Amino acid sequence: MKKVIIQITSGKGPAECCRAVALVYKLMLKQAARQAIKVQPVEIISAEYKDTYKSATFIAEGNELNSFITTWNGTVQWIAESPYRKGHKRKNWFVGVAVFDVKALPVWNDADVRIETCRASGPGGQNVNKVETAVRGTHVATGIQVLAMDSRSQLENKKLCMERLQAKVMARQAEHLVEQQQQQWLNHHALERGNPVKIIREKL
């Protein structure tokens, strides 16, 4: 099953482009759901106004990724009047969508995790506090920790802990990968206003 990192960015565009990033992100999530593509948010960088993003980065995984990527990879043109500058003549706003291969991420290995059990705190009665049912997982290489104490079953908490820790570590690794490749993307795939892969006409 294919897995990629996708980043939507406003580049150095104004607030309207940041709004377009949020709207494109929303549209991409809807399309991903229709195509049974699993999406895991990595990082959302908010902009000045409510519901505006400088960038949105997520991991996408599924069997229909190629068609999904082809639809979005490149420059997206959003045609709408500015909600922030009434009467502004410009109606064309551009955002960039870049795709990175997750194969560049380190392979996950359960052996890299240190597991510790501890007593759960909070609601649940005396039985919860007397038995070490909570599980803390530490990814040794990064120091990232996750504590799971949802269940009274230590086995179930361990499973939840490993799942959440893997997601958290992958998200951190994805962030680093995007940071490393962002400048390369800006250099080679700068927003080409005259050649959008998709044109959307809708109110901002």
TrEMBL record:
InterPro entries: Pep_chain_release_fac_I, Pep_chain_release_fac_I_sf, PrfH. It holds the Pfam family RF-1. Residues 119-135 form the Prokaryotic-type class I peptide chain release factors domain. It comes from the Bacteria. Belongs to the prokaryotic/mitochondrial release factor family. This is Peptide chain release factor H. The lineage of its organism: Bacteria, Pseudomonadati, Bacteroidota, Sphingobacteriia, Sphingobacteriales.
